[in-house]
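haha ok so turns out i had the wrong file open the whole time. this is the CORRECT one, sorry everyone. sequence first:
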Amino acid sequence: MRRVVMRCSRWILLFALGWVTVSALADDPDGCLVCHQYRGLSRLDAEGKEIRLFFVDPRFHSEAAGPHGRIRCTGCHDRGQVGVFPHNAVSPVDCTRTCHLSASRNIEVRFGHDRISQMLETSVHNRKVLERCNEILGKPVREGQAECLLCHDEPTFRKPGPSWAQREAPVARCNVCHDGQLKVDVRFDYWHVHSRSMPARSNLGLVRICATCHSDPRIKQEFKLTDAPVSYLASFHGKAALLNNQEAASCLDCHVGEGENVHVLRSHKTAGSPTSAAMVPDTCRSAACHRAAGASISTAAIHLDLSRSRGIEYFIALIFVLMILSTFGPSMVITLLKLFHMTIGREDPDHHHEAALARKLMAEPGLRVKLQRFNLHQRFQHWFLVVTFATLVITGFPMKFADRAWAEWVIRALGGLTWVRQIHRYTGALLLLGFFYHSGYIVYHMRRVRGESKQGWLKIFFNLPMVMKPSDMKEMGHLLAWLLFLRKDRPDGGRFTAEEKFEYFGVFWGVMLLGVTGLVMWFNAYASRFLPGRTLTIFNLVHSFEAFLALLHVGILHMATVIFSPAVFPISPAMFTGNTPAEELAESHSLMVNELADVAGLKPEVGHG
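then structure:
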């Protein structure tokens, strides 16, 4: 009985091995996958310096995953070299040789890339250039191999769609008529034609290939090139590519004309080239890109390198850097000094008295209303600003810092770059509407004051509570002197301190700047009919730097004042209820407290000496 079981087991094992071998040979007539299907198949070269990998994914052939899936191994490798085991010395594969495809009904089809080799000779990537690049790069393409491998690796079919079922649906439709009649491999033929109608690589993948040479310091020096991939990735289109958006223009979209052969790529100095001065406006206005734009859109910088440029863009960037240093820098120093004083417990001599006075005033309902620094209408405007600003930050900064890993995560979580752009744009439009509403609110207030007092418009404007006055500069100097231990008392702040007025001015000016530049970039096609294309580059810089400056002030300094200050921690209730805590009133708005106390007949017991 035992012998019977062992014999049956042997027959089952032999049958299984035979079935696997037959199955493999059916997909791989040369039987190469019997060994090459194993991922660990590799060895050191003769010099012991390099590991050679010989793994071939069986699915590439069995599932026809790429255009070479129909080619037998011996269609490229010499049968006399690989037909024996162990193999004889294997010659490098030359992609320009004639290949033999096993087509349907076992009819052999001949195909070759020799025409491509001839086309390259008329392009900027001719054989002489490619050979020199290969030499500079350390000869990654071996002797006897075609220079095609500098740009090409094993291609696969790009199959878009979220599921395999959806990808296979068109093939099923084709099979309704073709599958039992023509005896052709419909699935392979469909994906071969479909993939040829799509870019072979993603935008970012294409940049990586171009960067092999165009970002290499030695090649740039040899051929007098700029680092085009780096400057592209810093551009609007490049940042979209970094966020895996395939709609933005890639290298080939600009450097190869619509419907032209990518292997006949010409220099921008060559007449008729898509990037030549005469043709680039039409290249930018192709059907797939800015088809409704004006011709001037082509002058917007795609390869702007601020570190090398000395044009207006460089000086705008320099101005904003100086603005950040001259505004955020001092404000940050003052905030840190305040935190230091809070840490050591240093207070104004009259702080406790004024805090007690504020609590006494707030205990009276009629007086508490007069201590409210923000009414309901103003609080609504503030929260409208908070929501729109936060949304713009969440959607805008991932696009600005597209090369960071967190940026791609945020964009993906929000539904993709197309959705994020729309959210950002329409939120910006809401912010502008809020700005116009607030401006109308100010004009309405000024008209009401003029009707009551008959004062001049200029005087009314400078008397507005949030407009900075010369006295505010003195208050800032007084505050700095106190923080540096040069004075014993803090300045007596009114309803709004000099710092708050400065922040308000920054928001007012920043919203105008961000709104104007954002609208021009949003409607770039229309704007380019009337404005130079370079304006788009300048506005993009201004928009980006101003947004960064706004985030620094609001996200760091303002948050430190309204959230992390011990006087209001964990958050100031002023923008919820309108009531400012007594400690905060005594610390920053003592003048307001003392003035109300005088009106109410509550004379202070002590005063500043």
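The first strand starts at residue 42 and ends at 44.
again sry for the mixup
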